[in-house]
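REVIEWER CHECKLIST
Item 1: Sequence provided? yes
Item 2: Single chain? yes
Item 3: Sequence as submitted:
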Amino acid sequence: MKIGMMQPYFFPYIGYFSLIKYCEKWIIFDSVKYINKGWVNRNRILKQNGLETNYITVPIERISSKTLIKDIKINKNIDWKNKILGELTIYKKAPFFKEVMSIVNDVLSYNTESLCELNIYSLKVICKYLNINFNFQIFSQLKDFPVESVQAPDEWALYTAKYFNATEYVNPPGGKSFFNPIKYQSLGIKLTFLAPILNEYKTFSPTFIPGLSIIDVMFWNSKEDINKMLDNFILDEFP
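Item 4: Structure as written out by the authors:
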């Protein structure tokens, strides 16, 4: 079984979904500290001029530096939903604007105070739209996970893979530097890194800007074409 795990991001970029599609089980890693100005409560779309990017953001309540992602609450005193919907109107001439805006409306209307729950719901909705099997579990809800065994950053993934009797653990290439492949080999787990190839596609921007939110991809491309993009990656076994 191929397994992957990542923090629950807000409308993440297409590479996140490439990982989900490749894996047979996905772990929502919600038991780590929230990082300010990361991807958990925001992502990038195009600006009106098409030359720059803008952030769509879910505002959160005040937290301490030790607050875990699973405990983040959405700040409901800010009209963030209508702000995001307004910011997305720049895509109104995109070929799939109507159906994608329906998806966004569905996600933003989800009744929860939890940022983590909102993000998980968005992943479920988008995977359903793209016909991706989203077989997931939430890390904080795993029973009898051997937390005391984790002594290094790469061991969260190591012991999660072991917990599920996985034969392969898949990670984005950016984390390669802190993985010790010998640990994985000793448990019979293949360690691989999936690097998505970010295909260019036509937008209203005169210059293609890669790595934007999956929303941007969905506005401009059919489900069939997006799935071709999802399958376009380089898989590197480590070491």
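Item 5: Key structural point noted by reviewer: The chain has eight helices and eight strands.
Item 6: Recommendation: ____
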